[in-house]
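When time allows, look over one protein, given below as sequence and tokens. The question is which stretches look regular and which look disordered:
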Amino acid sequence: MDTSGIIGQSPVMQDVFRVLARVAPTDTTVLTTGEPGTGKELLARTLHKNSRRASRPFVSINCRTIPGEFLEPEIFGHEKGALINTTNSGQGRVALADGGTVFFNGIGLLGSDLQVKLLRLLQDKELVRMGGISPQKVNVRVIASSSINLEKEVEQGNFREDLFYRLNVIPIALPPLRARGGDVLLLAEFFLKKFREKSKESLFISQKARKLMMIYSWPGNVRELENIMKRAAVLCEGPEIEAEHLPDNILSAGDIEQPVEPVVPGGYEWPKLRDMRDRKMNLKEYLEKIEENLLMEAINKSDGVKNQAAEILGIKRTTLIEKLKKKSLI
């Protein structure tokens, strides 16, 4: 499968790749979630590139950057006279994607009227232009993304429940960069390689800089990492990127004089027998405690929304509830 630049060897990203390989060849609607900068549009492009629609258009609609009054004509098009100071009709981006894929970036920002129109598109494969009456048939695969909790938006009445379930046929949660361990350095090297190809100079990351990058929490995720590598490559006068070439927020992320655990493949070290013995547990008790901790962490991260917690854990909601009941956690 062509991953279109999605880089990762961590276990969480390998799970994402497995889902991509299964889902890409289908026409199934996909809802991808994750923090800003985790690569949701790149994932959507990968789905399109590996689909039967790859030869047809991929059209991205960023609901965050289009002013509210222009969202409807931009997405669904408009008839003559429907817009002030416009004498012609206009084809929307969904129609431009006919036969291909349309990606709604920031789907949670759509108002109730546009949610109804999108639901019609998903159900009936047709749209009605702004100011129009006659429906227009259109054949598109819909991929949507959200950085906000849509399930919570449904509970608060801000997002249609029927639309949420239409979009959430295949949920793909992109992990934050801080949860991807050694992928941080893998991605950093990947970005530096791109910059090297342009400048024809060799650039390397010093050990101090590598340690700092592994400590940092990367709130801006992969997008932040790429920008910082570009900045460091510009500031670096020699062949090696040193700690001083990194911004202050990374320098202050941790004390580099303190020993840092060596990075293992995937950025994770599996539990060892000594961990179990230190807690005076047998294997069954230890595994049950690990499972309990993971269950509660997922519940906390999802603010108690069980559908999202189950998605994080990669299990069914009913399975999650059974496990919580068995451990008397609910």
Remarks:
- Residues 185 and 199 are 21 Å apart (CA to CA).
